[in-house]
Amino acid sequence: MTPNHLSKPQSRRAVLKSLSSGFGYLAFAGLSTFEAFGKARSSSSVRAPHFPARAKRVIFLCMKGGPSHVDTFDYKPELQKRNGEAWRGSAAKLLASSQEFRQHGESGLRISSLFPRLAADHADDLCLINSMHTDLPNHPQAYAQLHTGSFQFVRPSLGAWSLYGLGSVNSNLPGFVTLNPPSDMGGANNYGSAFLPAAYQGAKIGGGQLPAIFSALSGKTEEPGPPMKNISNDRISQQMQRAQIDLITSLDRKQLARDIYHPEIEGAIESFELAYRMQDEIPDVLDLNREPDSIRKLYGTDRQGDSGRFARQCLLARRFAEAGVRFIEVTAPTSWDHHSLLNDNLQNCGAVTDQPVAALLTDLKNRGLLQDTLVIWTGEFGRTPYAQGLGDGRDHNNKGFSLWMAGGGVRGGYRHGSTDDFGYKAIENPVHIHDLHATILHLLGLDHERLTYNYAGRDFRLTDIYGNVVKDIIA
User: I need a labelling partner for 68 at 20 to 30 A (CA). Which of 10, 121, 233, 354 fits?
Assistant: First the structure.
């Protein structure tokens, strides 16, 4: 039914009265947001988790493009048997995997031949989830949902929420670092803080458009060694820099005191302070020459092209973790978006990523860090069991895919959930992206329902109104 007040012509006075009420609400929402910003905690302070944590930090290995789960970690013998058959009455044909799957370790996890070192050295450390699913089969939306929980709106990233909840261990380094993030697929939104204070956004080092991840800080295109061109300043002493920052900070705080609260000013103050403190520590963390030859050989940092680049990224991830960074994301420099030439492209991706990832797990374990470091390997979705195009590629598949985690309180040598006989859809113990985020926060000691931030008049959280902790994968 039409409300009575809408069934009659409205006078100009009534319309203006209604509009003024709306403006009042918007003003209230804005003020509540500014108040929330004003009460926000500094990212440099360590905060207690909601309950005892299993993981202190996260290393997120992002395989951009959607790795084919049926060629990596989800063995499908039925797909092998029925290669070339029509897919559910369509013109598409089932495509068997060209990779060999073998059982490894005491657990007997099946892992494809693309990852010989990972399989041989760490099968019993991996917690495979073969029943992942997400909402859309499009790269930008799925990538955004993987990182922020939402494919529709700009929301804080997983790393930003983690830092907001726990704070930073090392005040001289960013609490959230992203190595080689792509400039497309949503760009900075994937490591941004959105409505959280700017101090919680990820610190970008390098990017897909740069020849090496160190360029942004070192001013070089190869493995860095001190001094860092864009970190050290040979023209102005640190004392003079301190005086300059103090002056700028005093002016900023005067502006904050006289005006309505501006979160961007508070963010600028924190960023200047962090940048000043980073001068003492970041050059040493980025200097891989400080590592012994045996460690650099373990990762393969001397290899050429993408292989060496990813090896350096993984070694840097361990160094950042050891230095107290809370959340480290590493984006592999290869694309897993294989619509054609599937076997050749898979071989290349495996060759680039297998040794560095296996080395990272070995290095963390040898240093006693793996037990409280949660390592995650995943893409934004999987691939179809049927062929695409000329029959030598796979299309996007958001209904079922695989990821693995290691360390940080998860069960090693364990396989959770499954897809159907062909790997098309998650059918047993399906795990949504919201469930994944809830579980990651849980391992960090954070209740995803309690980790909220008041914005525009209501409380927001990473998992929106969804998400369940996957308790079966917790050791």
Answer: 121
Inside any domain, residue 18 = no
How far is C-alpha 84 from the chain's CA centre?
Answer: 36
pLDDT for 242 beyond 80: no
CA-CA distances (angstroms) from residue 253 to 249, 259, 297, 410? 6, 10, 49, 45
Peptide bond into 137 cis (omega under 30): no
Among 173-187, 230-244, 359-373, 452-466, the least confident range: 230-244
Residue 390's pLDDT is 87
Q: In this structure, are 358 and 424 located in the same domain?
A: yes
Do both 208 and 132 map to the same domain?
Answer: yes
Please answer whether residues 451 and 462 qualify as being in contact, where contact means their C-beta atoms are separated by less than 8 angstroms. Answer: yes
Q: How many CB atoms lie within 10 A of CB 268?
A: 15
Residue 184 shares a structural domain with residue 253: no
Assess whether 103 and 246 both reside in one domain: no
Same domain, 88 and 202: yes
Is 28 part of any domain?
no
For the chain, the distance separating the N- and C-terminal CA atoms, rounded to the nearest angstrom, is: 56
Q: Are residues 396 and 324 in the same domain?
A: yes
CB 42 within 8 Å of CB 270: yes
Asked whether 218 and 230 are in contact (CB, 8 A), the reply is yes
* Alpha carbon separation from 151 to 94, 147, 461 (Å, rounded): 30, 9, 15
Count the domains in the chain.
2
Residues 252-283: tens digit of each pLDDT = 778 777 766 677 777 777 777 777 777 778 88
pTM beyond 0.70:
yes
Using an 8 Å Cβ cutoff, are 60 and 376 in contact? yes
In this model, does residue 207 exceed pLDDT 90? no
Residue 163 and residue 80 share a domain: yes
Boundary of a domain, candidates 248, 278, 308: 278
Judgement on whether residues 252 and 383 belong to the same structural domain of the protein: no
Determine the pLDDT at residue 459: 97
CA distances to 258, 270, 305 from 309, rounded to whole Å, are 49, 31, 6
Tens of pLDDT, residues 138-185: 999 999 999 999 999 999 999 999 999 999 999 899 999 999 999 999
Q: How confident is the model at residue 240 (pLDDT cuts 50, 70, 90)?
A: confident
Domain hosting 238: range is 233-278
Q: Nearest-CA neighbor of 82 among 393, 390, 387, 419? A: 387
Q: Please state, in angstroms and rounded to a whole number, the distance separating the CA atoms of residues 44 and 57.
A: 15
